[in-house]
Design a protein that fits this description.
The complex is a heterotrimer. Chain A is mainly α. Chain A is built from 14 helices and two strands, in the order αααααααββααααααα. Chain A has a two-stranded antiparallel ribbon with strand order 1-2. In chain B, α5 (125-138) packs across α7 (157-169). The chains are: A mainly alpha, B alpha/beta, C mainly alpha. Chain B: It is found in: Cell inner membrane.
Chain lengths: 325, 324, 305
Amino acid sequence: MTVFIIRRLMQALLVVFLMSVIVFFGVNVIGDPVHMLVSPDADQADIEATIRRLGLDRPIWEQYLLFVSGAAQGNLGNSFIFGEPALKLILHHMPATLELAFSALFLAVAVGVPLGLYAGLYPDSLLSKGIMAGSILGFSLPTFWVGLMLIMLFAVELGWLPSTGRGDTGHILGIETSLATRDGLSHVLLPAMNLALLKISLAIRLTRAGVREAMGQDYVKYARAKGLSTRRIVFVHVLKNIMIPVVTVMGLEFGSLIGFSVVTESIFAWPGMGKLLIDAILQLDRPVVVAYLMIIVLFFVLINLIVDILYSILDPRVRLRDQGA
Amino acid sequence: MRDVLQVSALRTHFFTHAGVVKAVDGVDFTVRKGEVMGLVGESGSGKSITGFSILGLIDPPGRIVDGSIRFNGAEIANAPEPALQKLRGNRIAMIFQDPMMTLNPVLRIDTQMIEAIQAHESVPRQTAWERSRDALGLVGIPSPEERLRAYPHQLSGGMRQRVAIATAFLNRPDLIIADEPTTALDVTIQAQIIHEAQKLTRQTGTAMIWITHDLAVVAGLADHISVMYAGRIVEQGATDDVIDRPLHPYTVGLLGSVPSANKRGQRLYQIEGMTPNMLAMPKGCAFAPRCRAATPDCQTAPPITEVDGRRLRCHYPQVQGAAP
Amino acid sequence: MSDTIAPETSTPATKVETPFRRFASEFFESRIATVALCLLGLIIVLAVLAPWITPQNPYDLAQVDVMDGRLPPGSEAFAGYTMWLGSDGSGRDLYSAILYGLRISLSVGVASGIIALTIGMAIGLLAAYAGGRTENIIMRVVDLQLSFPAALVALMLVAIMGKGVDKIILALVVAQWAYYARTVRGTALVERNKEYVEAAQCLGLSRLRVVFRHILPNCLAPLIVVGTVQTAHAISLEATLSFLGVGLPQTEPSLGVLIANGFEYMLSGRYWISVFPGLALLLTVVSINLVGDQLRDVLNPRLKK
């Protein structure tokens, strides 16, 4: 077991290293930020001073070594635009993104599981067919397009909900969050709904498939033969069986929510790290782009590592050996 | 003795895309208080469907199309769901075939037993727990308190089936339907389970329908035997009569195919052919295509005849149980 | 007793049922899929014929009049024709712009799909052919890449490479090849364990021959299914990136670019500039997905046989 974890850890480190090479060289070989940063009427001396200040005059491998040694100390370089450490900028924007992603995850489970449950219990009803058609749409519709429609409907036409920004923030357990105020909540709702859409569809499908499988199992028929009410069978016997896979999968999707938040944040002007990334790309703010990508890579590698280890612990063969006893 | 259950002319059909499957097609029998009725037949003969029909657990596309099921005198065929729900697990309990599949894998034993009590009686959890513990003790489970805390996968197959039997007896039902409860178990465990079940029915006066494909199992357990073939009961009678003097060629075949000590050295009998396709039943006697005694008369449905308290569906009863 | 069994052996063969005909009849069993296929056909025809069926080439500056800007649907253009879908901020007829945009969106999606399919298939077959260590390494890389969402991979690549048609196609190919590779290798794994492959090997056929004559044909059905769904995904991904401003440049106005251009007008109630290109995108993606879904249903049972 320990050997397995150490091996996976080494692999994860290798991936992070490879990605750092790809990201750094990729970003630095293409695009030239100097022209973006120096005013058009600057003379050659100004330009050279800027280049020196940013360390762009050194050979690329030296820049990389500097970057790696800096990264090891938590220093991913300074933003060209803001002049602040890139890592600090990203960490500063991270809470807003996490808040959005968590809200979306919550919505996905809170909306998707009940709908999936209904569709699984009454597969032939009209409403179920509507739910399933909706989930197909949810998979097909591009996130940004749904975001636009949400803004058009709820913000422009109906004027019910605000479409940009985070609104007022308050404090819950010492964390500054929009979820603490009414205004903040109203700001979170549309972007969270937008981000959640894909995951709602996923939750519907997972739950429905799980329910349909469980309803055909002997233990459900046995529960009915015991004279249990439908409510108890569905909410205790069936739900408990399907929640384990559903929650596992939804948890795994958290990483992809962080990734997709780039789109949602851009549309709703949500001040998270996704919007920061897009702004940085458009302004050729390379240190911020590199720092974001490295953080995301780290994030995903970490999630995958945890999942791998968890799966090895929950290896079905181990459980099977238990059952045979 | 009082009749607990009277089933007459029961028909349960399944309306599939391919056609109507007449899984149960005219079944009659009676079970009296404290009596064990063996319902014997090959897989696909409709014996399990008969059991589920009594409990009202037939799901679409299947449904009871005709006949009556009287339980303690009241008609329950196609009764409304709430009424059936009150009976299930309370007055009529069921034990399923595979104990690996019937207990919910993610719920503890105590949860699954207590809910069976609380579904029908409003008793405190503690009382229900104590009754569950005592019930486990009755079926010979050592240290029941510990087992109650276990999850199903922590128990062996035999142990789980004992849990299922204990659960069935929890509410002192009038009738227990046991659907091949020992088929999935080892032979030694099988004997113990049969012994426990028999003991409990004697003690409590609970009637029982024991569904099985194995005549040997019910020979020592049941008071009466009904032999089913292709959705119909072909022979019915007291256990000793049926075993000693089978009249229907199918029963004769079934008995002949059971290995036993006094037939050592003989070739085991084999019923030729296969169970009929439920979608394309032969006309007349369903067994005729496989029957050695069949004549062109068998193209018409044989009438039900009653001889010495035995009921039979055959044109050519085998006299004196001569081995074919 | 064997005379009791009389199986029917003769069934009248009135019409020859070719695999394709059976496939088609099964496909058209679903009304939704049939509608989707027709719609998709219509969309492709419109896109291909765009220069001949639009009143205006929206990117020929000589034909665009700024005076026509932001006209609502149904308005009359300066040049005299009716703008059924209205016009955008710089006076382009939206109907024309959408058809030209469809051309770009479809080309990018299909091109990246075909390239990714070819590369993924080659790599998947290589893994299946080589086996052992090579297969292990290839599949490690595939698994690693699939652990990142395709959208994120594409976003990272454009973040590194910048805008442009070639770069977007490259990003989409990199984001998607792994799905094809996994599909091919997965099918190969199943096929490799079947008797006929063993039989072929026993006959002394070369491994190369087994891969190309036996494994590859069996991969085609799942590849077609994955290909349709991935192409829809590619189109929608390109639109997303373009909408974010990191995809195609303004000189290559795909549907995503058109939607992005209309976004600023949306808050002032001029919905049509974003909505109509969006609807075109939607119909395209959804119809491809529906066709893909039906293809999967029709092709899958045959895989099991």
